[in-house]
């Protein structure tokens, strides 16, 4: 037999354990509301979130447009003045010059080495000069290899970043690109269609948790009323275990929801990524360009120019 006092003490312990498990969700929900700036009432979540996200996305697209225009203007002003504002033509011309000089330098080095090997034993050439030429060859080879490495690096930059350069260096191309940005507005329907089901799932889980807590409290009241009515009589162990198992079933339900709860909350947090959409836009040749890579593209353009100058 189990005393009434011991039985009710365990009932209260089980109720507290269930509340503690459910508190994790309440805490996650509080952090989520803080992160997404959601109102207290779940019925207002989708409306509030949609309005805020539309504003943030508008600011994102406005800032992106301004940054791209500023980068393009700066690039065309700094590198395109001698080519009628065509900065890309300026870079291509320098690359052509570098290619020609590299080919010429490679040919000269081959001729020099062939000439040296052919006349290294020619006693008509003073020994001192032959020694100087012999020592100069490794240094010349190193310089030519450095030039070859820079030549390869320039080609790689152009291959990887050339489409970005085309947008930044050409005002018409940039305008076409920005028109794509304008057309890909984040609409109310898109936000609600994406966020609504996620919020509905969170509300559903919240109601299920509330129902579990309510059921636990009702069980506790029922057991208090039932067992206290027995007076000083104890509770049969089989009956006690059967009733206590009901709390364990509720705890199992809460635990089973934990993975789904975490996934739903993570999905809700990921909704904030909508504010910075689109992340890519089609450029020349329908190549998808990442909007957050244009600052890097500008730096690559400047670096390619610098390498070309250093090789001339």
Brief summary of the model shown:
The chain is an all-alpha fold. The chain has helices at 4-36, 45-79, 87-119, 127-169, 171-183, 188-228, 237-270, 294-310, and strands spanning 280-282, 288-290.
Give an overview of the whole structure.
The chain has helices at 4-36, 45-79, 87-119, 127-169, 171-183, 188-228, 237-270, 294-310, and strands at residues 280-282, 288-290. By secondary structure, it is mainly alpha-helical. The protein has a two-stranded antiparallel sheet.
Which SSEs are present, and which pair or pack?
Layout: H1 4-36, H2 45-79, H3 87-119, H4 127-169, H5 171-183, H6 188-228, H7 237-270, E1 280-282, E2 288-290, H8 294-310
Antiparallel strand pairs: 1-2
Helix pairs in contact: 1-6, 1-7, 2-3, 2-5, 2-6, 3-4, 3-8, 4-5, 4-8, 6-7
Strand/helix succession: HHHHHHHEEH
The overall average pLDDT, rounded, is 87
Described by the principal axes of the CA atoms, the overall outline is: elongated
Order of neighbouring strands in the sheet with most strands: 1-2
Strand content: under 5%
Structural category: mainly alpha
In DSSP terms (H or I, runs of 4 or more residues), the helix count works out at 8
Please report the total strand number as a whole number: 2
| End-to-end CA span | 99 Å
Strand count, sense and barrel status of the largest sheet are: 2 strands, antiparallel
Radius of gyration: 37 Å
Helical coverage, percent range: over 70%
- The unreliable regions are none
């Amino acid at each position: 037999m189990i005393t009434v006092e011991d039985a009710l003490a365990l009932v209260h312990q089980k109720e507290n354990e269930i509340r503690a498990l459910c508190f994790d969700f309440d805490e996650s929900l509080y952090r989520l509301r803080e992160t997404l700036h959601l109102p207290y009432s779940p019925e207002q979540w989708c409306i509030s979130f949609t309005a805020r996200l539309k504003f943030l996305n508008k600011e994102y697209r406005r800032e992106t447009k301004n940054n791209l225009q500023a980068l393009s203007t700066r690039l065309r002003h700094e590198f395109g003045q001698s080519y009628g504002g065509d900065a890309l033509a300026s870079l291509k011309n320098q690359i052509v010059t570098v290619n020609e000089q590299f080919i010429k330098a490679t040919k000269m080095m081959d001729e020099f080495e062939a000439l040296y090997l052919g006349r290294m034993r020619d006693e008509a050439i003073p020994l001192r000069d032959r020694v100087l030429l012999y020592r100069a060859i490794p240094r010349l080879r190193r310089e030519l290899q450095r030039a070859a490495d820079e030549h390869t690096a320039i080609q790689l930059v152009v291959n990887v970043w050339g489409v970005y350069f085309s947008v930044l260096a050409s005002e018409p191309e940039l305008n076409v690109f920005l028109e794509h940005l304008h057309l890909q507005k984040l609409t109310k329907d898109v936000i609600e269609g994406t966020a609504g089901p996620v919020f509905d799932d969170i509300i559903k889980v919240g109601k299920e948790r509330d129902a579990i807590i309510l059921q636990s409290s009702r069980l506790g009241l029922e057991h208090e009323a039932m067992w206290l009515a027995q007076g000083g009589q104890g509770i049969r162990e089989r009956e006690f275990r059967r009733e206590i198992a009901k709390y364990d079933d509720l705890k199992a339900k809460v635990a089973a929801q934990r993975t789904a709860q975490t996934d739903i909350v993570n999905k809700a947090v990921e909704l904030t990524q909508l504010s910075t959409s689109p992340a890519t836009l089609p450029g020349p040749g329908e190549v998808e360009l990442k909007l957050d890579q244009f600052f890097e593209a500008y730096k690559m353009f400047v670096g390619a120019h610098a390498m070309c100058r250093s090789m001339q």
